[in-house]
Amino acid sequence: MLSERRLEVLRAIVQDYVGTEEPVGSKALTERHRLGVSPATVRNDMAVLEDEGYIAQPHTSAGRIPTDKGYRLFVDKLAGVKPLSTPERRAIQNFLDGAVDLDDVVGRTVRLLAQLTRQVAIVQYPSLTRSTVRHVELLSLAPARLMLVLITDTGRVEQRLVDCQAPFGETSLADLRARLNSRVVGRRFTDVPQLVQDLPESFEPEDRGTVSTVLATLLETLVEEAEERLMIGGTANLTRFGHDFPLTIRPVLEALEEQVVLLKLLGEANESGMAVRIGHENAYEGLNSTSVVSVGYGSGGETVAKMGVVGPTRMDYPGTMGAVRAVARYVGQILAES
Fold it and tell me: Staple 127 to which of 85, 154, 227, 228, CB 3.0 to 4.6 Å?
C-alpha cells in the first residue's frame, strides 16, 4: 500500500503530465504543488513509485510519466468525477433539447460528447430487446400490401412492408390494429410473441392468413439485432494526440472501424455505473495505447444502451468521466420524456 504522501505525488504527476504533455520532474512538482516536503523527499517517493510500476522514465528524460498501472490507481483512488459548470450543463440541455427524433438524439449526442471531451465519441442506439412497445401502426398501401410501423418507448421507429396473401379491407385492418395494440402496448418486446400467438384464431378464416403474415413481420422486427447499431464521431480528434501513440495511429483507427470491437468496449460499462478501461486493460491490441470511458444510459432507471469515448491514456479522466456521465443523464431524461 502506498502512503498518502506518495499517492499525492502520483496525483500531481498525472495532473501535470496530462496538462503539459511533458515528463514530470521532482523540482517541477515541488514548485507547482504544495506537497509539504523537500525535492529530495519527492525524488525518493518517485523512486518508490517507479519501483512499484506506477510511473516510468521515458527514454533519457529526467522526468517521469504515469504507466497504465499509475493511471488505474489514479482513477480508482484519486480522481473524483469533475462536475460540469452551469454554462456547460445548460449548453448540453439546449443542444439536446432541439432533437426531433431518435436518430437526431444519437447524432447530437455523438457530436456533443466529441466536442466536450475532445476525444472519439461512440453512442449505441437503444436496444430493442430492452424496449417496450409504444404503438403499432398498420397502413394500407394497396389492396394486398400494408406498411407496419413499430414505435418503441425510446422513440425508435421501425418500418416494414407486408405483402398479404389476399386483399385486406380497411375494416379488417382497423380491427387488427386495435386488437394488436390492446395486447402489446406497454409490454416488453420479449413478451410480445406469447401475447399474440393466438390472435389469428380470433379472426374470420379468410383473414387469418393475412393476420399471421402481419404478426410474422412484427416478430421478425422484434428479434432483429438492430440494437447493434452505433454512431461514432470525433475521430479527427485523435490527430491532436499523434505523439501519444507509440508507433502509429493506424491500429487505433482500424479498431474504431470494427463495430464488434466497439460494442465489446461499450459492453464493459455495467448497468448502473461507469467503466474506465486503461491501456492494456483493453483486450483489443490495437487499443492498447488508449483509454475507454463508458456508461449506460436509459430512462426510468433502466439501461437501454451504452455510450462512451476513446482517447489516449494521457486523458483528463475526471473531466471526461464527468462529461460522459452528464450527457448520459440528459439523454436518459429525453428518452423518459419522449
Answer: 227
What DSSP state is assigned to residue 134? Answer: E
- Of all helices (H) and strands (E), which one includes residue 10? helix 4-20
Residue 324 backbone dihedrals phi, psi, to 5 degrees: -60, -45
Task: Name the 3-class secondary structure at 3.
Answer: coil
Q: Which three cell numbers stand for residue 271?
A: 448497468
Phi then psi for residue 278, to 5 deg, are -115, 125
8 A C-beta contact, residue 296 and residue 332: no
* Residue 325 β-bridge partners: none
Length of the chain: 338
- Cα 216 from Cα 199, distance rounded (Å): 12
Please name the residue that has the C-alpha cell 421507429.
157
DSSP sequence for 229-287:
-EEEE-GGGGGGGGGGSSS-SHHHHHHHT-HHHHHHHHHTS-SSSEEEEEGGGSSSGGG
pLDDT per residue, tens digit, the chain (338 aa), is 778 888 999 999 999 999 888 888 888 888 888 888 888 898 899 999 999 999 998 876 678 899 999 999 999 887 777 888 888 888 888 888 878 788 888 899 999 999 999 999 999 888 766 678 889 999 999 888 899 999 888 777 888 999 988 888 888 899 999 999 999 998 888 888 999 999 999 888 888 889 999 999 998 887 754 456 888 998 888 877 767 666 667 778 888 887 777 777 777 655 557 889 998 888 788 888 889 999 988 876 778 888 999 998 889 999 999 999 999 999 888 877 76
Strands 302-312 and 290-299: antiparallel
φ and ψ at residue 303, rounded to 5 degrees: -80, 130
